Amino acid sequence: MALTIPQAERVKKKFVASALPWRAFLAASVCAGLLLAAAATFAAEDQNPLAGDAKAAKAGEYEFRINCALCHGLGAHGGGRGPDLTRAQKKHVHSDAEMFQIISNGIPGTVMPANGTNGQGVGMTDEEIWQIITYIRSVELKAPAKPLGSAAHGRELFYGDANCSLCHMIEGKGGRLGPELTGVAGSRTRESIIDSVRNPSRRLAWGLTEATKEFPQEYETITVVTGGGKEIKGIALNEDSFSVQMMDQNEQIYLLEKAKLRSFKKSRESMMPKFDAEILSDKDLEDIVAYLVSVGAK
Amino acid sequence: MPRRSRRIFPLLILCLACGFIAARARGQVTFERLLNSGKEPQNWLTYSGDYSGRRFSPLDQINRKNAHSLVAKWVYQTAATGKLETTPLVVDGILYATAQDDRAFALDAGTGRPIWMYQHPLPGDVRLCCGRVNRGLAILGDKVFLGTLDAHVIALDTKTGSVIWDVVAAEYQKGYSFTVAPLAVKNLVVIGVSGGEYGVRGFIDAYDAATGARQWRFNTVPGPGQPGHETWEGDSWKTGGAPAWNTGTYDAATNQVFWPTGNPSPSNRGEGRAGDNLYSDTLLALNADTGRMNWYFQFTKHDEHDWDATEVPVMLDSGGKHLIAQANRNGFFYVIDRTTGKLILANAYGKTTWSGGKDAEGRPVAQKEASPTLEGHTVCPGALGTTNFMAPAFDPQTALFYVTARDQCDIFSTAPQPYEAGHAYYGSAYFPSDDAKPYRGFLKALDPATGEIKWKFEHTSPTWSGVLATAGGLVFTGDAEGNFIALDAASGKPLWHFQMGGAVYAAPMAFAVDGKQYVAIAAGSGVYAFGLP
Asked: In terms of CB atoms within 10 Å, which end of chain B has fewer, N or C?
């Protein structure tokens, strides 16, 4: 059990910590009271006190590399574990104040940890968090004034001719073999969604994360021949050295012991067919992306 | 010794030991006993089992023939969450271990029933790079010794868990912490500090086991006027890192403690600390009584990839030579003459791209292109290393060195970062390189005479588990998916496994109670003990 630090003491620590980099030039000319007041602006603001400050954005870029890029990728374009933050529309936050809260305290039920002064791990000061927010805002893509495609038509395609819903679920409707896509537009760029449709094997389930796993389910393709000679092809749900759990195209779940199989093959060639421009035109794909974005915006 | 009975000891070695131990039953753990731990194979007296660091148990009741029939005997739930890295100690039927929140506990080793539990009160603002972890205890006399995340060294009474003494080694507010299992040598408790991600100045301390008074400190970053100081640019030595967060070994013949050190700080940015940065990523040979250095061997000069050399240095003898071997995080397996510190061989045992050649001594040297850049580029191994804190094992019967290995490459990118006391000081970022997926994890068996890989067992994904070798011709390890696995030490063939339901971050150990052998490992939040039906 950790000792509880009284709230007042914790707040004081925060002030001192956030004032540190400023100390050198402030200490000479500013009295201690003013110092605390200046630092307090970082913690108490609902809006980013450093908004639009190019120097703060640069400092934030370095802080981002050190503390965030492991999951969110260089340039905030998303990594294997964390969403792309260059998207204007984010899954969990809208305002700077919300972003501050989330960076400080983490997101329960996800792998996003608390990063504030009292968080696990590195512990960033309020000032550094605002710098990071300034940086993220500086690299954010502006949302297009109106969607490039037609969401309504995209929905028709998703559940109709494009066959997406045979394997993907959105808002409780659709198949179970591929990743659930309700929130996908909140965590991935338009470009990465398009890339996943055009080249599904290039990065399996790229950018999708699950709270319960250290690394996301990768949707590798598994082909086995059982002891009885039956061939089963599907996606890996979970695997260890001695067993595999998989789902086939009929959404049947199998729990198999590897030692009892005649053969076991795992491939990073996705079961999702490659949708090239002949099968799915650029315009239709744009409509499907618009549909995904419209769902994510809810 | 009422709880032990000769009739069920099936093995000669145990029978011989029995008489010796009977006289000492439930006695204190003297330095003599630590020195001669091979004479009481039913006990596990140090982090690595004995002073050599081999993590080899002479017990052979559980062996290649019967391993398939192993069953779980008991589970102790610590209720602590996070990574449980502890290796238990067992002395005369009592098991002593720790959990990641700096609690220590004693259990009946035959049933897993608790005897006492001590919880160190931790402040909420400890500075940790990698979460709360603790790797275990040392034992000497009637005390066990715990290093804590707020940089205390604490002696607890073995019978009650009462605090006998509690000393503060360093200011945790500046990033100092202990995660290591200490090593008891003579009348001293030797312990190395963590904090390489906070710009600490690393050290190895020795405390009087009776009083807690500090007897010596070896600063792993030399100060002004000391040899090696010139390997640091300007004032960079003050925040030079070189922590010492894994347990070393002890050679009674030369009265030397061998203790490895970690990365220079900031870990992934060499700019501002030009030079070799001694004694980071180094194996130190220290006089046990004084802490004075006899020799050193630096594995990675001017490290820019966070390749701590803190892996357990294992003493082994071969061809009449007294050697020390280390499978290093940088991807090379090193064998060193432990009398002189001279390098004998250095062979890659995993995927490496950073070194383009070797120097005159045979030490792999970094090529310029391996340095992290602003844009970032891929280097193998990644920052997690080919191996890491996972304890290796050496089996004198097969003469093989067993180590957990990972093939993963990372993109290393630098980022200028000013030093601020108590604040993370990486100077960089790294991220798994997607192009290198899937990352692969292995248990590898190396021949220390040549550095060759004799066999390897591939896990489904990389594991953080250490390895135990036993005289039963077995090696034991755990995996990230929660399995505890017994393999044939000669061939690497898996013979048995048990799904424990939680990832493994700890190393296994073996002991015996009432003539029955157990193998134990921590996984998830629990400590698991296995034995024959």
From this structure: C
Residues B6-531: name the CATH superfamily.
Quinoprotein alcohol dehydrogenase-like superfamily (2.140.10.10)
B461 touches chain A (CB under 8 A): yes
A→B contacts (Cβ < 8 Å), by residue, are: 1-5, 13, 17, 20-21, 61-63, 65-67, 69-71, 73-74, 79-80, 117-118, 120-123, 125, 203, 206, 214-215, 218, 239-242, 268
Q: Give the residue from B431, B458, B464 with the most A CB atoms within 10 Å of its CB, the best one to mutate.
A: B431
Query: Would you call B490 exposed, middle or buried from its count of C-beta atoms within 10 A (0-12, 13-18, 19+)?
Result: middle
Mean pLDDT of B425-437: 75
Give the residue extent of every domain in chain B.
6-531
User: What percent of chain B is predicted at pLDDT more than 90?
Assistant: 85
Chain centroid to CA A216: 11
Task: Tell me the C-alpha distance between B451 and A131, whole Å.
Answer: 49
Convert the pLDDT of each residue in B381-409 to its tens digit: 999 999 999 999 999 999 999 999 999 99
User: Residue A29 has which token pair?
Assistant: 């000319």
CB neighbour class for A199 (10 Å; exposed up to 12, middle 13-18, buried from 19)? middle
Interface of B with A in 164-203 (CB under 8 A): 197
Residue B350 C-alpha, separation from nearest chain A C-alpha, in angstroms: 20
Residue type, B379: V
Using CB atoms, pick whichever of B131, B413, B459 lies closest to residue A65. Answer: B413
Cα–Cα distance measured from residue A190 to residue B467, given in angstroms and rounded to the nearest whole number: 46
The residue of chain B with its CA nearest to that of A203 is B434
Whole-Å CA distances, B423 to A226, B285, B370: 55, 31, 27
Q: Does residue B217 register a pLDDT over 70?
A: yes
Instruction: Kindly state the percentage of chain B with pLDDT values over 70.
Output: 94
**pTM flag (> 0.90):** no
Per the CB < 8 A criterion, the answer to whether B228 and B279 are in contact is yes
| Gap between the Cα atoms of A86 and A84, Å rounded | 6
Nearest-angstrom CA–CA distance, B18 and B294: 39
Q: Which residues of B touch A215 (CB under 8 A)?
A: 461
Q: Quick check: B437 and A5 CB within 8 A?
A: no
Are B43 and B26 in contact by the 8 Å Cβ rule? The answer is: no
Please indicate whether, in this complex, the C-beta atoms of B429 and A69 are within 8 angstroms of each other: yes
Look at A195-199, B210-214, B330-334 and tell me which has the smallest mean pLDDT: A195-199
Tell me if B309 sits within 8 A of B281, measured CB to CB: yes
* Cβ contact, residue pair B429, A70, below 8 Å: yes
Residues constituting chain B = 533
Classify strands B467-470 and B56-57 as parallel, antiparallel or unpaired: parallel
CB-CB neighbours of B321 under 10 Å: 12
Percent of chain A with pLDDT over 70: 73
Domains of chain A by range and CATH?
7-44 (no CATH), 46-143 (1.10.760.10), 151-210+273-296 (1.10.760.10), 221-267 (2.30.30.100)
Determine contact, residues B336/B297, Cβ cutoff 8 Å.
Answer: yes
